[in-house]
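So, is this right?
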Amino acid sequence: MLLSMTGFGEARRQDEARTISVEVRSVNGRHLKLSTRISEPFSALEPDIERLVRHRLKRGTVQLNLRVESLRRPEDYRLNLAALEGYRAQLLAFLGGGPTPPDFFSALLALPGVVDSARPAALDDPREHWPTLEPIVAEALDQLHRSRLDEGQSMEQELRSLALDITGHLDRIASRVPEVVSSYRDRLTDRVNALIQDRGLTIEPEHLIREVAIFAERSDIAEEITRLRAHLDQFDAVLSSDDAPGRKLEFVVQEMGRETNTIGSKANDVEISRSVVEIKGSLEKIRELIQNVE
């Protein structure tokens, strides 16, 4: 089961006193890195939030926002009559007894200090509210997990498809190997026969056989094919594991690339080289995908 490192989750609660909202989003990263934005005075809960995140996530760059907003009530607002009267008297004096503008009172109410709003009561200890906030943070993390899981399943299907493509090209390479030696033998025989006819040379058959044997040994890629098949089996096994396979996949793909490069350098055959190019293309796509696997 693969998990993507990209995802989003959110959760909200509201009661008669406040609104609590949690948003968490993640992108790929080699290690787990958490950034938080928390309403005051709840920043003291950051260690508790980090423990909860680290318990659920292994890798990725995570941004978590926790907002706690107190709900306003009608009794939270009071008119400062002294300030209101002071402004009114001064404005009337400024107008000199003339008619007051239509928006006179609305303008008065907008002046600083006319309306007092009660501040929320200070919390004695924000940690006392963690039992209330924890399930909301956990719900947002659950949604994040589901979105990462959905994307991870799509990535797994694509990775398996790319691995299947590599297996197909590897089968073609393996079937081509016997023809490489026989083709070289035929080409070498033709060149030797041409030299014999043009220059009257004689070449012992054992020399020809020895040259073909040397070529066969130098171009032998049987071990590389076997190892690449083993890496493909391991790749499939890691995809099916539950223990954050991202880094393991990176290592396996690195080994697959090494064997592919060796096959390309030793094979000395156009058809095999074409298959090697296709394998390298699939490996590059795999590398791009697993950069986002947890």
Summary: The chain has a mean pLDDT of 83.
